[in-house]
Amino acid sequence: MERIFLFIYQYRAFFTFLVLELVAVWMFLENNQFQGARFFNSANSVAAAITGFSQNTADYFSLRQVNRALAEENARLRYELEKRNRQLENLSGATADSAIIKQFDFVTAKVVNNSVSRFTNFLTINKGSINGVEPGMAVISQAGVVGKVKVTSRNYSVVTSLLNVDVMISGVLKRTGHFGTVQWDGSDPDYIQLKYIPRHVKPLVGDTVITSGYSGVFPEGIFIGTIADVKLSKEAPFYLLTVKLAQDFRSLSWVTVIRNRLLPELDSLEVRVPDFQ
Amino acid sequence: MNRFGVFQIALFVVYLLVQVVVLKNAVFFHTAFCFLYIGYLLRLPVETNHMALIGVGFGMGLLVDVFYDSLGLHTMACVLIMYLRPYWLSLLTPQGGYDSGAMPGIGQFGLQWYLVYATPLVVLHLSVLFFTEAGGFEYFWITVGKIGASALYTLLVLVMVDVFFTGSKR
Fold first, then answer.
1. Taking residues B15-42, what's their average pLDDT?
2. Would you give the end-to-end CA distance of chain B in angstroms?
3. Where are the domains of chain B?
4. Rounded Cα distance, A256 and A133, in Å
5. DSSP string for A223-240
6. Quick check: B30 and A41 CB within 8 A?
7. CA A109 to CA A128: how far, in whole Å?
8. What is the overall mean pLDDT for chain B?
9. What CA–CA distance (Å, rounded) separates A110 from A53?
10. CB within 8 A of A122, min separation 6: which ones?
11. What is the pLDDT of residues A57-102, one digit of tens each?
């Protein structure tokens, strides 16, 4: 027994190294697989306050641009609202289901931390569980899709960016109606890949790619981007399409979190069919 | 707590804040990252206790991870290079050995010695970081590009900071 202690003491530096390294590896795996470790991320209030301060300073330089974008969005929304109102007037005879009219809730949030350069990018926003944000909710900006909420604390949330090699969402070619999978290849933050569009479709450069709404997380028809490059190798069953993202992720400052009130219903329905996915 | 200890803690905080507030945003072409905080780990005194070195590496890595949302990633790399540092230093012992209280820096040992000392540790750190982040070797060449560019960038800033703040005495 004494010799074991002596042995451990002699190689104490090595054992310290071993233990701490294993702790680090464990934290890394745990954090990635189970979205655990709630405290040690940039949603914790001290870290968020520090990065929020530096982001605030940086924001002053993009105020003019943001103002313009918001004004444009306001104008567009007012137009949509009017259009919708008129449609409703025409339908006033029919009874609409209020659950479907109020299916989606919106929460506006400010980005306090953001990255675009890594393989797995995340952003932190200043709305948390207290504002009704929950893991799994969709996040969009006025230009298009941004990502999904990963973890929330009381006042902040971490969002898995679309620029993350682990994220896949369902996208549709608006012109033809064919759907595929949108996934980032980890190289250029301006472009993303659309996969599994079959050979017989004829996608063109400039075609619009939007969300399909199949997963129930994103509403149908949110803009993702436009096709910038079409590739089809000889034997491949599918196209490899490069999509120019509508949202410039480097200048992201305001986003909207979307909650789908009917998502639990959709999920519990699909669970009842074995092997649905 | 003596004055030296207080100074080291203050320096730790400064390196950490500069890293997470300033340098986190100073990334070039989405490939070249500057991890200046490695400089703090490299310049701890030569005779620092081996276990203390590993502990400081763990703490620095963990705090950087909190801000980068990459829990465990920087910690892993830091603990590894801090474990290897004393062995590497003993291989590089100059003639006559290290003076007591010596800190590995350009001021005391010269630029050439410093580069020989720092380059392998920085490259090892970045390799662990980027390959783990990429989840293996699937994106091999992109990752190698990131490591190369980031190593050059980090070393350049390390040398500039060292020369600027300690002044070359040789």
1. 86
2. 32
3. 1-18+47-89, 102-170
4. 11
5. EEEEEEEEE--SS-SEEE
6. no
7. 9
8. 85
9. 12
10. A42, A115, A150, A158, A159, A160, A161, A164, B69
11. 777 777 777 877 776 777 678 667 767 766 776 666 555 555 555 6
Q: Beta strands A223-231 and A191-198: pairing type?
A: unpaired
Instruction: State residue A235's pLDDT score.
Output: 84
- Please state, in angstroms and rounded to a whole number, the distance separating the CA atoms of residues A212 and A220: 5
Give the A:B interface size as CB pairs under 8 Å: 109
Asked if B33 and B146 count as a contact pair (C-beta separation under 8 A), the reply is yes
Rounded to a whole number of angstroms, the distance between the first and last alpha carbons of chain A is 56
Backbone angles phi, psi at B80, to 5 degrees: -65, -50
Q: Work out the angle at residue B88's Cα, subtended by the Cα atoms of residues B83 and B89, and round it to the nearest 5 degrees.
A: 105
The span from the CA of A193 to the CA of A245, in Å, is 10
Of B20, B51, B71, B141, which to mutate for an interface test with A (greatest number of A Cβ within 10 Å)? B71
| CA distance readout (Å), A247 to A169, A191, A254, B18, B132 | 16, 10, 11, 29, 28
The answer to whether residue A124 neighbours chain B at the CB level (below 8 Å) is yes
Residue A228 CA to residue A192 CA, distance in Å, equals 10
Which of residues B91 and B170 earns the better pLDDT score?
Answer: B91
Label residue B30 left, alpha or beta by phi (over 0 means left) and psi (-120 to 50 means alpha): left
CA distance A6 to chain B (A): 17
Residues 6+ apart with CB under 8 A from A227: A173, A194, A203, A204, A205, A206, A207, A209, A241, A242, A243, A244
pLDDT in tens, chain A (277 residues): 788 888 878 788 888 888 888 888 888 887 765 444 555 666 677 777 777 777 777 777 777 778 777 767 776 786 677 677 667 766 665 555 555 556 677 788 888 888 888 888 999 998 889 988 988 888 988 888 999 999 999 889 999 999 988 888 999 998 898 999 999 988 888 999 998 998 888 889 999 999 988 877 888 888 899 999 998 888 888 988 999 998 888 888 888 888 877 777 777 787 777 776 5
| Residue B93 main-chain phi, psi, to 5 deg | -50, 125
- For chain B, the C-alpha Rg in angstroms (whole number) is 16
How buried is residue B127: exposed, middle or buried, by Cβ count under 10 Å (0-12/13-18/19+)?
middle
